[in-house]
Write a structure and sequence with these properties.
Blueprint lengths: L24 H31 L6 E6 L6 E6 L12 H4 L3
Antiparallel strand pairs: 1-2
Length: 98
């Protein structure tokens, strides 16, 4: 398998999107195994973080966030972010009086 090489003068990484459907079967199987393991790890991380947030009293206006860089477990208290409005579209007919 040959992949295109796009170099830059300053060695900046040039990311290209790869179509997973184009992978040979043996590699596609490994990719799917990776994706399943990632999904399981993400679910375990989210469950762990929810348990930590339930067990820790955060200062007013702050939320517990977790970090995992370099294999070390760390935490910080970050400002609680306001929820953003939904980006999905709503039909006017749902809002109009009947």
């Amino acid at each position: 398998m040959t992949l295109a090489f796009n170099a830059t003068a300053d060695d900046t990484l040039v990311w290209e999107n790869l179509n997973p459907a184009s992978l040979p079967p043996a590699i596609a199987k490994q990719y799917e195994a990776y994706r399943a393991a990632y999904a399981n790890a993400k679910a375990a991380r989210e469950a762990f973080e929810a348990t930590m947030r339930a067990a820790v009293v955060a200062p007013a206006g702050k939320s517990l966030v977790m970090g995992y860089r370099f294999g070390k477990l760390s935490y910080a208290f970050a400002p609680v972010k306001a929820t953003k409005a939904s980006a999905s579209l709503v039909d006017f007919a749902k809002l109009a009086r009947k």
